[in-house]
C-alpha cells in the first residue's frame, strides 16, 4: 500500500485526488490529510442541500458546500478534521467482500487497534464513536475492481460548526440518547 500524506489541503482538492487514484491507478493507497481549509460542508452523493444545510447561515458566512462522488452523510470539516482514505483493489484485503457493510466492519477492526489505548472505541451503526460520542463518519465507493473508504475524524471539532447543519430525518438511534 502506498502512503500519501498532506496537511491543510482543501477538501475539494482532496476528493479530486481520491477519485483520480481510484479510477486512474491500480495501486492501493492510504491518504491522510491533517485538517482542511477553508471550513466546508461535505455532502454525500444523494443528499439534499435543503434538507441538511442551514442555507441562511452558510450563505452569510460563505461556507463552501462540496458534494463528493461517494456515499455517506453530511459533515462540516475544518482544521481540526483528520481525513483517512483507503483506496484498494478488491483483492487487497484477503477474505473481504468489497461491499459497504463488510468494508465498514473491517475498517472498524483496523481502527479499533489504532484507538485501543485512546478510549472506548466502537462502530455504532455507520459511525465511529468513543463510548457513545461520534467522532468519525464514513463514505464509500465501490467499483468493479476497486473500493474506497473515506473517514472524517472530527478530532478537534469547533462546536459552532454544528449550526450550519440541520438535524437529519434519519438520525441513528444511539445519537438520540
Strand content: 25-35%
The helix content is: 10-25%
Distance between the termini: 39 Å
What's the shape?
Answer: globular
How would you describe this structure in keywords?
177 residues; alpha+beta; BirA Bifunctional Protein, domain 2; 23% helix; 34% strand
Please, could you describe this protein's structure?
The chain has 4 helices and 10 strands, in the order E-H-E-E-H-H-E-E-E-H-E-E-E-E. The N and C termini lie far apart (39 Å). The mean pLDDT is 92. By secondary structure, the protein is α+β, with helices and mostly antiparallel strands. It has a single domain (2-176), classed as Bira Bifunctional Protein, Domain 2 (BirA Bifunctional Protein, domain 2, 2-Layer Sandwich), CATH 3.30.930. It has a 7-stranded mixed β-sheet, sandwiched between helices. Strands 4-3-5 form a 3-stranded mixed β-sheet, with no helix packed on it. The chain is globular, with a radius of gyration of 16 Å.
In short:
The protein is of the alpha+beta class and 177 residues long. Helices cover 23% and strands 34% of the residues. It has 4 helices and 10 strands, in the order E-H-E-E-H-H-E-E-E-H-E-E-E-E.
Write the layout of secondary structure elements.
Blueprint: E1 2-8, H1 11-24, E2 29-36, E3 40-43, H2 49-52, H3 55-61, E4 65-67, E5 75-77, E6 81-89, H4 100-114, E7 121-124, E8 127-130, E9 133-142, E10 146-154
Parallel strand pairs: 1-2, 3-4
Antiparallel strand pairs: 2-6, 3-5, 6-10, 7-8, 8-9, 9-10
